[in-house]
Amino acid sequence: MDNSGGASSGVGVLDKAALVLSALESGPATLAGLVTATGLARPTAHRLAVALEHHRMVARDMQGRFILGPRLSELAAAAGEDRLLATAGPVLTHLRDVTGESAQLYRRQGDMRICVAAAERLSGLRDTVPVGSTLPMKAGSAAQVLMAWEEPERLHRGLQGARFTATALSGVRRRGWAQSIGEREPGVASVSAPVRGPSNRVVAAVSVSGPIERLTRHPGRMHAQAVIDAAMRLSEALRRNG
After folding, report:
1. In Å, how far from its chain's centre is CA 240?
2. What pTM does this model have?
3. Average pLDDT in the 82-107 region?
4. CB 99 within 8 A of CB 122
5. Which residues share a beta bridge with 209?
6. How far apart are CA 15 and CA 239, in angstroms?
């Protein structure tokens, strides 16, 4: 039986997994609710939901009901990456010109963050992060931003061994931006703000970085507003195309 509203793909287990995900689109469901919504046998519905939970495509809420999992948001965010990169060039160039510092765009990938776009300061001392660079999620203002709005369990895990604390991330959520002074690299300061996708989920971090001598020990005072404006321009572009 195919309740998905479309023809069978011929791969039964995938069709059934798609039924489970479609059933959860309308909200949390108990196992009995999944059985009713999908028409699957109870053991099959349970086996598929638990397997999808293993892959983070399904999760549980506080009542133990099945809900759509965080992996789906991550995949949706990745689907928007081309749109993000198409907009990033001019936005980062403008941010560099306004601040006089190198500008970067980071996305999270597992336990690392990747620089997916950058606009380098044209002369003088600068913090160069080549596109494609992989940096840890344990230090730096971009890592703080990419971590701050994570689900609690992943947040707790990510804080282990990090150079920043849960209290610092609480401040990031309250202010809407992060700063770091010599956290990722001695002598380098940075300011970052979140880029949000159509679902309001944080999908990237936009940053400016440079020597502490120029950015001072309070880089947010100098550049937070410019970085927030750049992040908002990228977020708006994603919403328009979402």
Report:
1. 18
2. 0.68
3. 92
4. no
5. 102, 190
6. 30
> How many whole angstroms separate alpha carbon 70 and alpha carbon 168?
24
The confidence score (pLDDT) of residue 2 equals: 43
Mean pLDDT over 148-175 rounds to: 93
User: Max CA-CA distance within the chain?
Assistant: 68
Chain position carrying tokens 């099959």: 44
Q: What is the pLDDT of residue 121?
A: 86
Question: Parallel, antiparallel, or unpaired: how do β-strands 112-119 and 102-109 relate?
Answer: antiparallel
Kind of pairing between the strands at 202-211 and 178-181: unpaired
Query: What confidence tier does 72 reach under pLDDT thresholds 50, 70, 90?
Result: confident
Report the C-alpha gap between 161 and 48 in whole angstroms: 35
| 25-33 own/partner pairs: CB under 8 Å, 24+ apart | 25/68, 27/67, 28/61, 28/63, 28/65, 28/66, 28/67, 29/65, 29/66, 29/67, 30/65, 30/66, 31/66, 33/65
Q: What DSSP element (H or E) covers 33?
A: helix 31-38
CB 108 within 8 A of CB 77: no
| Type of residue found at 108 | R
| 162-to-112, 148, 183, 202 alpha-carbon distances in Å | 12, 12, 10, 20
